[in-house]
Amino acid sequence: MMVAENTQSHLFLLFLLSLLTLSTSPTLSLHPEVQSTGYPTTATLDVSAALAQAHLALSYRPASSTELPSHLLPYDLSSAISVSLKSRDFLPSFVGSSAHGHPDYKALTLARLFRDEARVRTIAVRATLAFGAVADSVLNPNTNEEALQIAAVNSIMGSVISGASMGSGEYFSRVGVGSPPKPLYMILDTGSDVSWIQCLPCADCYRQSDPVFDPSDSSSYTPLSCNSSLCHSLVLSVCRNSTYYSSGPASASASADERCLYQVMYGDGSYTVGDFATETLTFGGSASVSEVAMGCGHDNEGVFYGAAGLLGLGGGPLSFPTQISARSITYCLVDRDSNASSILNISTAAATPSSTCTAPLLRNPLLDSFYYVELTGISVGGNMLPIPPSAFAIDESSGAGGVIVDSGTSVTRLQEPAYATLRDDFRAQMEALPPAEAMRPFDLCYNLSSRASVKVPSVAFHFPEEKALLLPAKNYLIPVNDEGTYCLAFAPSPVAFSIIGNVQQQGTRVIFDLVNDRVGFTPDMC
């Protein structure tokens, strides 16, 4: 009897010891599919503060501005260009209109989402053209030289639908154009290369906050010859032998019968057409760059919410950073519901990111406008999602895949399998919170109207060398109306790659080190 009891006691002790060993072993786990990151499992969402900021954004009424900003310039302008950066929803309005014209915050949100969907559609078409080896002319009704010349003479029947319908970008700055400089509001876009502004004479120009630029008033405006290398760098260009659009003074470089006519086509078949020229741009009131190649558009019908045009900050041969041989681009996007300003810095000096988180900057020769980052995974609630790194990699044979960092896209898009994994895991960890009706493109929304703050699962992007960017809760759970409905700001990607949008970038200083091919992320540095 005693032997039996001792044997049972011995077996029980061995059982307890085995459980202890299992629970403390660094190589074994009761849930081997869950990989802990060591990062916080939750984040605090300040519901009241976000709603208060949303109400302030809706009630904001901007004043007009005619001066170039001379503040916010902490950098050495001998090697850097710095401009003030603001959310496009705070662009000074045209005469007789309000800042937003939206009755409530839900209407403002829907307008933003409409712009965002259009932006993503445009990127999708560009990707289809690139990955499918389809010529740009497929979507362009005026690609042959004769047709373009006829279009120029006959007021150029095409149009570019910008802003709300084209989603060209979400942040803008004040830039001086010409000599003497005329201050104009321009959208800044890291996903576009060709810069352009509206110009007189207008065949059809949309309304903008500032007077439309008149190239004849600028001593530095120089039309480009159709034989110039810059003209040849355009995707679509022809020689114009008509003087219908006589933009600016005559010059030795381009007589009236040989000027370069540019056309930039967007994803829905819209396009802007005009003269391609060089001009002087002035930033921050004092830093000037001469001979910048840009479009002088004469038919730009559409809604750009008062902006005069677009400054292309992409990675292609005609982008502004490429033209000035920039070595780094740094920006910090303020909250889109805030009227505060931050700085965009384009430097011609070496700049290695001294950031909290750095990752490889990748390039895709099929889509050279975009800046790709090497993403290896995403965690929710402190645990890595079961998504293989290959889901975020660029396919070497087709060029598809990869992850771009885009200032013009608002909501982060993930390819469908990765998105579904994130959505389902986040939903499972949010079961204690009351759901709300979904709002396209968001699948997960929650009713937080009765709460001042709430703990939510943490979300982080992970990069090589065990680097990670832990997102603030307000960068992935955003208000969509005045009643306290918050939605997870991720959506499935309709394109063959993923996009890290500006909602997830808010409040984070982003630096593209173009020399060492690194991307740096530093939170709370606006």
From TrEMBL:
Residue ranges constituting the Peptidase A1 domain according to the UniProt record: 171-522
Pfam families per the UniProt record, alphabetical: TAXi_C, TAXi_N
A molecular-function term among this protein's GO annotations: aspartic-type endopeptidase activity
GO biological process assignments: proteolysis
Active site residues of this protein: 189, 406
Gene3D superfamilies documented for this protein: Acid Proteases
InterPro entries the record matches: Aspartic_peptidase_A1, Aspartic_peptidase_AS, PEPTIDASE_A1, Peptidase_aspartic_dom_sf, TAXi_C, TAXi_N
Secretion signal span: 1-29
Swiss-Prot/TrEMBL keywords: Aspartyl protease, Hydrolase, Protease, Signal
Family as reported in the entry's similarity comment: Belongs to the peptidase A1 family.
The name this protein goes by in its record: Peptidase A1 domain-containing protein
Organism of origin: Ensete ventricosum (Abyssinian banana)
Taxonomic classification: Eukaryota, Viridiplantae, Streptophyta, Embryophyta, Tracheophyta
